[in-house]
Specification:
- With 434 residues, the chain is of the alpha/beta class.
- The chain is built from 17 helices and 17 strands.
Length: 434
């Protein structure tokens, strides 16, 4: 079977706005993992990342015609799902109605029946895709037309959408093959401006999140448990990337790398023992680090930690269900910088119910934390997240064009009640020089 995995067309300007020259362009580890599963079944797999390659819809059509896939799979996010549906329409109308269209990813998982109702979509994969996609490939190769036994799949029978029961999450991440990075044109990818290294690769070593931040959908896609690869599995992948691609810097892309302190110390010790102390950066929370852990991370090569701060208002932190206090954040930044690690922070302006005074407080808090790098964004309410309904109760959407719903927007797509576009944008602009 020939399988094409596609990242829809999307320009750097649309994705990052005025930060288009400093943002990240990494290959999708979701598609890389799906690609590895398909290759293990001896399928011929091709990845077309239109965003990285700068392809238009017309150029993608030519790629599809040349490869002649039996199936096209696309990972969806809020700001890419309509682009994926446009690709599906073009495939069915302009190329061949016989090509199967499969959607997966966050947006498709949140609203699987809605997207499967689309006349150009054949299947939707809910949640983690590796097991489900494998089972779907095997069924299609056997020319099956009934899919009731494939958990996690949404499909159609005589025009009716059938939503199968969910598939179990993958308990042991060690059973998954290395992501098929070789399917991507790796020379087209690069890290964000503050990341060190000439050959940077990003690695995901865990899934799931026990936290319930209102703006995040991670727990709805990857489950509410926290699962991580064994130290041995992570070390093998690091060695593979170093030997195969001459990797000289690691970006751990786990949502919250340091949730399990014992696991993290073991990983750091193993990196040191195996002489794999490459420069590395990660994301985590302010309440899951301490001095012992930070010192071990520094010793193993960690030079930068990106913390989710979001707001300088405790009321708004509580509204978002961050589970953090202002004091947690102060202590984490203080310890991190004292241990010689760069402390970065993300900050959100324009949250539901946020007042102008709270916007000012967040800006002042960022200055107080003295972050080495501050990522400022205007709040974007993503459908399916817990904060979305609260946002609609206490504000209004300025557009329903999901293509514009990226956290890097130059202009607001949402305004809390009592706030003006000019006032909110003025607060955003005021952060650019800090």
């Amino acid at each position: 079977m020939r399988i094409m995995l596609v990242v829809p067309p999307n320009s750097l300007e649309e994705r990052y706005g005025y930060l288009r020259y400093v943002g990240t362009m990494y290959p999708s580890m979701g598609l890389a993992s799906i690609g590895a599963v398909a290759e293990a079944l001896h399928c011929q797999v091709k990845v077309v990342d239109c965003e990285a390659m700068g392809y238009s819809y017309e150029e993608l059509e030519e790629e599809i015609k040349s490869f002649s896939p039996h199936l096209i799979g696309m990972q969806t996010f809020c700001n890419t799902v309509n682009r994926a549906l446009e690709i599906a329409r073009r495939v069915k109308c302009n190329i061949s109605n016989e090509i199967k269209i499969v959607l997966g990813g966050v947006q498709a998982t949140l609203f699987p029946q809605e997207y499967c109702k689309n006349e150009y979509v054949d299947f939707v994969v809910k949640g983690e895709g590796e097991v489900i996609f494998r089972n779907l490939i095997l069924a299609l190769e056997n020319n099956r037309t009934e899919f009731l036994d494939i958990n996690g799949l949404v499909w159609k029978k005589q025009g009716c959408v059938i939503n199968n029961k969910d598939e179990k999450i993958v308990d042991s991440l060690d059973i998954l093959p290395f992501p098929a990075r070789h399917l991507f044109a790796l020379e087209k990818y690069y890290p964000s401006a503050q990341i060190r290294g000439r050959r940077v690769f990003h690695i995901v070593t865990s899934r799931g999140c026990p936290y319930r931040c209102g703006f995040c959908s991670c727990h709805k896609t990857f489950g509410t448990t926290y699962r991580f690869m064994s130290t041995e599995r992570v070390i093998r992948e690091i060695k593979y990337l170093k030997d195969t691609y001459k990797m000289d810097s690691i970006h751990f892309y786990d949502d919250t790398l340091t949730i399990h302190k014992g696991r993290m110390i073991d990983l750091c010790d193993s990196m040191i023992k195996n002489k794999l102390t490459l420069p590395w950066a990660c994301f985590t929370r302010a309440d899951v680090v301490d001095r012992e852990l930070l010192r071990k991370m520094k010793e193993s090569g960690c030079y930068q930690i990106f913390y989710g701060v979001e707001s300088g208002s405790q009321r708004l932190l509580d509204l978002m269900k961050k589970g953090l206090t202002i004091e947690h954040l102060k202590q984490a930044f203080k310890m991190t910088k004292e241990e010689g690690i760069e402390a970065l922070g993300s900050f959100i302006l324009g949250l539901p119910t946020e007042t102008p005074e709270e916007s000012e407080r967040t800006i002042d808090f960022a200055l107080e934390l003295d972050a080495d790098f501050a990522h400022w964004e205007l709040y974007t309410p993503h459908p399916g997240t817990n904060l979305f309904d609260i946002a609609l109760q206490h504000g209004r959407l300025l557009t329903t064009d999901w293509n514009k719903f990226t956290t890097w927007v130059d202009e607001p797509v949402y305004l809390p009640h009592g706030r003006s576009f000019d006032g909110l944008y003025r607060h955003k602009v005021s952060t650019l020089g800090d």
